[in-house]
Amino acid sequence: MGNHSDGSPNHSGTVATAGQNEVEKFQDPGLPPHRLRLADTDPKAAKRAERQVAVLFGTSVVGTLIFLVAYFAIDLGEGAGIATIRLQNALLGLGTAFAMLGIGTGIVHWAKALMPDHEVSEERHAIRTEEDRQAAVRIVDDIVEETGIKRRPLIRNTLLGAVALAPLPAIAVFGDLGPRPDKKLAHTMWAPEEGKLKRLTRDPDGTPIKASDVTLGSAFHVIPEGLNELHEGKLNEKAKAVVLLMRLDPASLKPSAGREDWSYNGIVAYSKICTHVGCPVALYEQQTHHLLCPCHQSTFDLTQECKVIFGPASRPLPQLPIAVDNEGYLVATSDFKEPVGPSYWERDEHERSINS
Amino acid sequence: MKALSQKRRHPLAVIALLLMGLLVTGGLYAVATTVNEAKASTTSYSASDTAEGEKLFEANCATCHGMGASGTQDGPSLVGVGAAAVDFQVGTGRMPMQMNGPQAYKKPAQFNEEQTHQLSGYVASLGAGPAIPEEHLLDEKGDAAAGGELFRVNCAMCHNAAAAGGALTRGKFAPALADVSGKHIYEAMVTGPQNMPVFSDANVSPEGKRDIITFLKQIESNGSPGGADLGSLGPVAEGLFVWIAGLGVIIGFTIWLTSRTS
Questions:
Q1: Nearest alpha carbon to residue B116 among B132, B104, B127
Q2: What share of chain A is helix, strand, coil (3-state, %, to 5)?
Q3: What is the pTM of this model?
Q4: Same-domain status, A321 and A200
Q5: Residues of chain A with C-beta less than 8 angstroms from the C-beta of B169
Q6: Are residues A285 and A196 in the same domain?
Q7: Do A234 and A294 share a domain, yes or no?
Q8: CB contact, 8 Å: A204 with chain B?
Q9: Which residues of B, range 178-237, sit inside 8 Å of A by Cβ?
Q10: pLDDT tens figures, B183-195
């Protein structure tokens, strides 16, 4: 039991006023006076608290029953709609919540309202004695002596060698996280195969797109011809090759030198992979000709060859050079002239090799 | 009064007040944004429809769109936009425009079904353009799975994967698609209103559009099987909710755990 003071405010605090050099010593104010609870003095209140605890435990029982009834009585078999699933989900959740909360709150309320609440002071043990320290040193010395590690350098050295070598297999395994992508990131499926130019096809069904299909103001989501026929790595290839195809008034496009023949009658194709961190940029505003990236709001201006006009992206979106084949379908005349997507370590090197 | 002023200092009073405020704001907003929708039943126009439409146009639209809908510097020419564009813009209340701004807002329709029909007839007579879709494309009996794939490829980047809408640049936004009639969804796809790109029949086939509408109506009627969807706005809304409500509950419990019983 602690020292129950009278609870009067302690005036001998540690506050020192200016010019007063001698600080009064802080006096232990002791514990505040013990205050009896209603349940300690009034048997009726104690009875009431008892009933409250019982009700809380009862709630837990009801919760468990709700869970069991919801689990077994609600039939999710044939013909059960999504409303039934929602009902069962809700009841399972509520049942579990009541079952757990009822026990927890009941125990806490029981402890707070009915169990003894007298204050107890526990004195701190002395932290360490010199004898304990000496005993510990003796134990360590004994261990060193008994293992004989000082006398047997062969054992010591082989142990050090073994411990030093043991992590090497783990490091060797890291090699399997590779191999380095090398030039995979620099090329996409748009590169012509055996002289045959790849057609632009619709995502997801892969049907080719005629130039006449692309009306003013429309936006097509495009994948390269043959993507859907890939057996392996389809998503990896798609992630690099997706393109957004749009038609603008040809007068609003101002192609820079060398890009004059990359569009067809105002139809332009740009990589959909943001140059910032690779989110799909496909929010096209057909009146302002802005392309917005939903992740970090990088905004690209289509009339300025997708120059970045807002946001964290540092490079314009790569443009895919397109033309029309003799059947009127849109084709890519070459791969992108730079690696698509965000920066990576060897990107500059790859860009130079593409354009050399 | 004394009882009230005592309860005012109750630790739960702040929470109760916050909840009340949120409920009232949400309720008022829900009431204020409810919009009634017009539905036209037929897509053929008689000569009198066109004539009546012309009168309506001259009285209500010509200020901005010019006489004969040839356009002025305040509004674009409507020659060749087709009946679908008029039915969408007027039917959803976006036109006549409330005020100049980044985007025309959806609001209660200013013209009734018949007047909308007459206006569409007039504009359709000025030049060929997308027509109001036929009933069989709006029956919501297409392939919802195929529609879902088309939606995720073509629409979800702006309109959100759960069609809850999203922000665009400089005050523009893609609206939520719940409670939009199938006809208006179809018309928006073929005409590309405001900054939405056009999804012509060469891009997404009429059957594909039917599938998309089927998908949208299906997710709308299914609701959210996991409980409250918090507007389907994704991790930010959900995170905010957990931070405020979840941590609030935990803090409430810790306060209760450490408080003395009376």
A1: B132
A2: 40, 15, 45
A3: 0.71
A4: yes
A5: 285, 288, 290, 292, 297, 299, 310
A6: yes
A7: yes
A8: yes
A9: 192, 194-200, 202-203, 222-223, 225-227
A10: 999 999 999 998 8
Chain B closest-CA separation from residue A21 CA (Å): 40
Structural tokens at position B42: 């037929």
Sign of the alpha-carbon dihedral angle for B82, B88, B89, B93: positive
B76 touches chain A (CB under 8 A): no
Considering its fold, how many domains does chain A have in total? 3
pLDDT in tens, A39-71: 888 999 999 999 999 999 999 999 999 999 999
Determine the Cα–Cα distance for residues A98 and A92; give it in Å rounded to an integer.
Answer: 10
- Examine the domain organization and report whether A329 and A189 are in the same domain: yes
A111 close to B (CB below 8 A): no
Give phi and psi for A190, each to the nearest 5.
Answer: -75, -15
Mean pLDDT by 10 residues, chain A (356 residues): 44 48 76 84 92 97 96 85 85 95 95 87 80 92 90 92 94 81 86 90 91 90 92 90 93 88 93 94 91 92 93 94 93 93 90 89
- On whether both A166 and A202 belong to a single domain, the answer is no
Instruction: Considering chain B, tell me which residue range(s) the CATH 1.10.760.10 domain(s) occupy.
Output: 45-131, 139-223
Q: Which of B150, B158, B203 best probes binding to A when mutated, by most A CB atoms within 10 angstroms?
A: B203
Class of domain B139-223: mainly alpha
Give every CB contact of residue B199 below 8 A, 6+ residues apart in sequence: A218, A219, B154, B189, B190, B192, B209
User: What's the gap between Cα A47 and its chain centre?
Assistant: 51
Residues A219 and A284 in one domain: yes
Domain that holds residue A144: 131-175
Chain B residues lying within 8 Å of A247, measured CB to CB = none
How many Cβ contacts (< 8 angstroms) between chains A and B? 92
- Indicate whether A190 and A296 sit together in one domain: yes
Determine the distance in angstroms separating the CA of A126 from the nearest CA of chain B, rounded to an integer.
29
Asked if residue A197 and residue A148 are part of one domain, the reply reads no
Nearest to A286 among B197, B257, B260 (CB): B197
Q: What is the CATH number of domain B45-131?
A: 1.10.760.10
Residue A21 lies in a domain: no
